[in-house]
Amino acid sequence: MEVSGPEDDPFLSQLHQVQCPVCQQMMPAAHINSHLDRCLLLNPAGHAEPAAGPHGPGERPKGLSPPGTKRRRLSESSALKQPATPTAAESSEGEGEEGDDGGETESRESYDAPPTPSGARLIPDFPVARASSPARKGSGKRPAAAAAVAGSASPRSWDEAEAPEEEEAVGEGDGDADAEGEDDPGHWEADPAAFGASGGGRAHSRALAAEEIRQMLEGKPLADKMRPDTLQDYIGQSRAVGQETLLRSLLETNEIPSLILWGPPGCGKTTLAHIIANNSKKHSIRFVTLSATNAKTNDVRDVIKQAQNEKSFFKRKTILFIDEIHRFNKSQQDTFLPHVECGTITLIGATTENPSFQVNAALLSRCRVIVLEKLPVEAMVTILMRAINSLGIHVLDSSRSTDPLSHSSNSSSEPSVFIEDKAVDTLAYLSDGDARIGLNGLQLAVLARLSSRKMFCKKSGQAYSPSRVLITENDVKEGLQKSHILYDRAGEEHYNCISALHKSMRGSDASASLYWLARMLEGGEDPLYVARRLVRFASEDIGLADPSALPQAVAAYQGCHFIGMPECEVLLAQCVVYFARAPKSIEVYSAYNNVKACLRNHQGPLPPVPLHLRNAPTRLMKDLGYGKGYKYNPMYSEPVDQEYLPEELRGVDFFKQRRC
Ligand SMILES: Nc1ncnc2c1ncn2[C@@H]1O[C@H](COP(=O)(O)OP(=O)(O)OP(=O)(O)O)[C@@H](O)[C@H]1O
């Protein structure tokens, strides 16, 4: 059961037109959130010229464009170099195909037309530092529409400047990361002023020295540092928590129902729980975090006991967040059931697996399932830009010839670290909707670049000057390769690699099989996807040549399910090598295919089941001749001469050849 809003209905979307509060362009309501994400990139302070008027909707009157300023073209960033892959297509699905409010004369076109791969993101002229993030502040008030970036326009504030209390975390897990912060020597929280929702704060144009940036990036992963605390900074996911969704109203009135957050890795499940935690603490609700990867049933019982005490003595509610809830087995999940039922705890579970299969049906029926989607490229760009701005890194228009490194000014107010716009786009694209990969890839790319520069200066005896450093597209690709092997989990690579694995096992090449397995797992492939393929392989390619292959594959699947990555990788490796070395037989597989072909090619009605093979549980059936003449094999010491196929198929042997 997905929480949905009117924007989910394509028909209503057509009827219900809304106006963008930033650029004034009219568009279907369903597109407003994704449009705003991007429109605000162009008009961070809400200074867009009205699009309607004598020039038509979305058309900018000539001359209104600020001199020397190019507007970022959304469609271009989403087109991103590999437009044909399923990932690219998927990314844009559901988020609307609209471009921005456009610049010059093509705005209307870019709203409707498919993305064009030609242009780079347009950014301000070098070296003038300007922000590109919608979430930055610095220009005084946050534009009213900015709230809608995350689908929020509620007057009720979710981001009152209040330092969140630490979450109560039992065991280790994502929830712990937040609690670690204070003690972490490399700790740095993303400057909330740099992208907060209430105006003021660090201006994007603040120039930071390379060394300063390097120090900020050390320590915790950038993804953790950038985890938003408020719904306003929660990018995308408008179908789940956008304006006018039921969930959003419930959250805003602090009526948190029990929830199952279902979505792919890095799409914001834990982040949404973290935002709910921040908010609930303001209302004196306890928020306890457990990770099903390491929590025991006793931990759950302890939490429930404490929740009961809090409820009866202090009338205090408890929200229990369980990350990776699918890792709990059914009986562990049963532990929650009565307590969710009677309201002792409000359960929020996060899972990457389909809850219909992985969550107890009784528990599921007491929770609202919120489906979070893979983040589209545009949302990824917004998230990356938020990090880039808060780090004080400046985006460089790579189509321009000016070389920032050769710029001679030594003014300390000028930015010293730049990133190519196409590097941001590439990172957004290759992250495949996983913000963690994108942010951590960015962190590695910048750190690697800054560190190599420092090393170079040290080796060459030059004084290390935190002058200009440019992060290129290649740097981010390398960064991604280090943090995450380039692997398109939803696109062609996914199918290419699984096919290569299957063929290597079929060809009995254990070494190559391991290679393809590692390529997928290191690239972030779901181990259960690989395990499912192994189950299939066990029957299709090994079959009766080694009947123990199938139980092995099923065991590997279950093992992966129990322990998850990275521990389960060795289970898969063992199974893959076993299969590569196993004798192969396609006897059953091809015979079964022959039968299917026979059925498919059959002309006319299928032949009836021979009477002697029919069961005869009633007298009437017996009278009709059901079961008559059937020879019960165990009663015969000799082989029984009896027909089992319909009359017209007599003599067909599906193991020998296709006869139909
Ligand atoms: N919608 C979002 N808006 C802004 N930042 C996001 C969003 N989603 C994810 N992030 C960033 O990505 C990081 C990882 O996201 P998060 O931990 O919420 O993913 P997840 O869906 O819980 O993934 P997993 O299933 O792997 O645990 C966060 O720390 C945050 O910085």
Automatic annotation (TrEMBL):
CDD domains: AAA, HLD_clamp_RarA. This is ATPase WRNIP1. Pfam families: AAA (PF00004), AAA_assoc_2 (PF16193), MgsA_C (PF12002), zf-WRNIP1_ubi (PF18279). One of its GO terms (molecular function) is single-stranded DNA helicase activity. Residues 135-156 have a biased composition (Low complexity). Belongs to the AAA ATPase family. RarA/MGS1/WRNIP1 subfamily. Residues 76-89 have a biased composition (Polar residues). It catalyses: ATP + H2O = ADP + phosphate + H(+). Residues 17-44 form the UBZ4-type domain. It comes from Myotis myotis (Greater mouse-eared bat).
